[in-house]
Write a structure and sequence with these properties.
This protein is an all-alpha fold. The protein contains 18 helices and no strands. The longest helix is centred in the N-terminal third of the chain and has 25 residues. The radius of gyration is 28 Å and the shape is elongated.
């Protein structure tokens, strides 16, 4: 007799096995696909819909499910500007364990963003070698709980809640009164958390502001600017989990809206228990002042700068060539179209003899990387012109130090200035 597949009947063994499989599924897309594969599986799901849905929600979100569910339920219920005692608690999942379709839709949306931010946080704050999250279970749980608590703050006391606190035609006295009440409510909210939990929230806020600073034009650093921009405050008070969209696409959706920092800044670094390569040094200068996460290599070049920082990269060019009338527009176009990791990696293809001991796999500090870029960026661009099929004219004697290229188009077009000078004085350096 050949082997045949027998249809599943509703025996305890089969039903229990199917229920076990359903509660092990990683997300709701898999759950929907699975229960539609057969009527028998669908029937088992119908016998235990609440427990299966709750289990899949836990598989999707993880141990921070109570915090995530608190965010979406408070937001969906529009519990704006309420004292913390009137909000749904983190134990609401025990009090009301049934997840509605609205709960599920909101959980899927916010958890996707939080998981992406966790990977970005891990890459920048724990292990610069890998772009996927390397956080331990304890670190991941702290990160996600803090992230969802910051999201809750934004939902209940942030921009939309702020706008609902008073009528558009309110006079200044009413606005001032509402603002004082808002400060008291926010203080009460943060007062409901322990000191370690507050430090975790603060770490998340600092991390998110760093991403926004990158989009605003700060590059080559993990250190935040001395002052917070209105844009970063606006976004954190609007929807902090959407900072991942700023990382991917820039600040196009941000408009000015001022708010103070959520918490005072200090130097404590909670959430992370261990930083991989924390004491690594620059492969070239071996400086002991720049270590670990402030080193740059192939796995994290892509974080070096966003679109807003391209003018800073152009300033690395030697001499006056960044103002070359014939090429400056095309140079910026090439810069805009070339991802950071492709550009920096490409510079090594034009490595000069002075850098024979430098390798693409090196981990470099900011100073060494900038020095390497400054000495090779003009050579790399000339290579891009050759690849495009441009006919390169003869070199100007003054090379990139030529001042005439900045005010006479005919001269800029007639000679190549993306080359070393053989005469003349060098201008002051850009840095």
């Amino acid at each position: 007799m050949g082997n045949t597949v027998q249809p599943m009947h509703s025996s305890f063994a089969n039903a229990d096995l199917v229920e076990c499989v359903l509660t092990s599924l990683p997300d709701f897309h898999c759950l929907a696909s699975t229960i539609l594969t057969s009527k028998a599986i669908h029937n088992v799901f119908q016998q235990h819909p609440r427990s299966v849905v709750r289990s899949v929600a836990y598989n999707l979100v993880g141990p921070a499910l109570p915090q995530a569910l608190r965010v979406v339920r408070c937001q969906n219920a529009q519990l704006y500007y309420k004292p913390v005692g009137e909000l749904l608690g983190e134990d609401d999942i025990q009090k009301n364990p049934v997840l509605s379709s609205e709960d599920i839709t909101s959980l899927v949306a916010i958890s996707t963003s939080v998981q992406e931010l966790e990977s970005l946080f891990s890459w920048r704050m724990k292990d610069r070698r890998l772009k996927t999250s390397q956080l331990s279970l304890a670190e991941s749980t702290r990160f996600q709980k803090a992230m969802y608590r910051l999201c809750l703050f934004s939902a209940v006391y942030g921009r939309y809640a702020y706008e609902s606190a008073f009528e558009p035609d309110s006079d200044q006295e009413e606005i001032d009164s509402a603002l004082e009440e808002a400060k008291a409510l926010r203080k009460g909210f943060f007062g409901s958390f322990s000191t370690p939990e507050l430090r975790d929230i603060q770490r998340i806020e600092t991390f998110l502001r760093g991403i926004i600073a990158r989009a605003e034009g700060v590059c080559f650093t993990t250190i935040l600017p001395a002052s917070y921009s209105p844009e970063s405050s606006f976004l954190l008070y609007r929807a902090p989990h959407n900072v991942i969209d700023v990382y991917k696409g820039g600040l196009g959706c941000i408009t000015e809206w001022k708010e103070p920092p959520l918490l005072p800044v200090n130097k404590k670094q909670p959430i992370i228990d261990e930083i991989i390569g924390e004491h690594d040094r620059c492969s070239q200068c071996q400086s002991d002042t720049v270590q670990g996460l402030d080193l740059w290599g192939p796995s994290n070049w892509s974080y070096l700068w966003g679109t807003a920082a391209l003018h800073l990269i152009a300033q690395l060019l030697k001499g006056y060539v960044s103002a070359n009338l014939a090429d400056r527009s095309h140079f910026m176009t090439v810069l805009r179209e070339t991802p950071a990791e492709e550009l920096v990696g490409g510079l090594f293809d034009y490595k000069t003899p002075a850098y024979n001991t430098w390798n693409k796999a090196d981990w470099l500090c900011k100073q060494c990387l900038e020095k390497f870029m400054r000495d090779h960026l003009h050579i790399w661009y000339l290579g891009q012109k050759v690849k495009r099929g441009d006919v390169i004219p003869g070199n100007c004697w003054y090379g990139y130090n030529c001042r005439t290229q900045t005010h006479k188009l005919a001269h800029a077009q007639k000679l190549n200035h993306w080359c070393e000078p053989i005469t003349g004085d060098a201008p002051p350096t850009n840095f």
